[in-house]
């Protein structure tokens, strides 16, 4: 699948940031830094809605890896918005969330049971990448990335934050 924009999508709102890495598509990696504001979630939701529509039109399925190892606890307003985000299973095979805390992994699993949203949790990025590759291969989708060499994106430096702010 070709994208009209860069395979790296980055948005910043103050101290909060997310990076979407599409270089290993159909693995979609979202890395969250510091936390998540309502305006930043709005930006993510806009991108995600367009992305899902594009995948659906092209009959392309994906696995999403969400790296939350650098993310703080979102506000109740943001958590409510996250819970309501539509993640259609005709496009998304599965979501794998990287969370280091066993208690938080357990809470995410319990929440997924309540909401019905399928979410797998793992303790680190290499385990998440390996799980995503396994999920893609189980659906006979070419997983053309190397688990051992995957590198998560770095956080924006203060010098390039102006180029990535929300009102770009």
Structural summary, described in words:
The chain is 34% helix and 24% strand. It has 4 helices and 6 strands. It has 168 residues and is an alpha/beta fold. The two termini are 25 Å apart. The longest helix is centred in the N-terminal third of the chain and has 20 residues, at 38-57. Strand 5 (92-98), helix 3 and strand 6 form a beta-alpha-beta unit. The radius of gyration is 15 Å and the shape is globular. The protein has helices at residues 38-57, 76-84, 102-115, 125-138, and strands at residues 8-13, 16-21, 27-34, 62-71, 92-98, 120-122. It has a 6-stranded mixed sheet with strand order 1-2-3-4-5-6, with helices on both faces. The protein has one domain (8-142): Transcription Regulator spoIIAA (2-Layer Sandwich).
For the largest beta-sheet, the strand count, sense and barrel status come to:
6 strands, mixed
Q: How many beta strands in the DSSP annotation?
A: 6
* General shape: globular
- Low-pLDDT stretches are 159-168
Class based on secondary structure composition and strand pairing:
alpha/beta
What's the SSE pattern?
EEEHEHEHEH
Helical proportion? 25-40%
Strand content: 15-25%
Let me know the average pLDDT: 82
């Amino acid at each position: 699948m070709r994208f009209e924009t860069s395979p790296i999508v980055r948005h910043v709102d103050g101290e909060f940031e997310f990076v979407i890495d599409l270089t290993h598509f159909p693995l979609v990696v979202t890395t969250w830094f510091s936390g998540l504001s309502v305006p930043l979630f709005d930006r993510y939701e806009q991108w995600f809605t367009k992305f899902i529509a594009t995948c659906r039109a092209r009959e392309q399925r994906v696995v999403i890896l969400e790296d939350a190892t650098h993310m703080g606890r979102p506000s109740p307003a943001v958590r409510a918005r996250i819970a309501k985000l539509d993640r259609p299973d005709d496009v998304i095979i599965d979501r794998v969330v990287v969370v280091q805390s066993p208690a938080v992994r357990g809470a995410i699993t319990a929440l997924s049971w309540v909401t019905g949203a399928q979410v797998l949790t793992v303790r680190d990025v290499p385990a998440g990448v390996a799980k995503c590759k396994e999920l893609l291969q189980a659906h006979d989708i070419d997983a053309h990335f190397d688990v051992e060499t995957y590198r998560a994106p770095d956080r924006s430096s203060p010098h390039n934050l102006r180029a990535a702010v929300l009102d770009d």
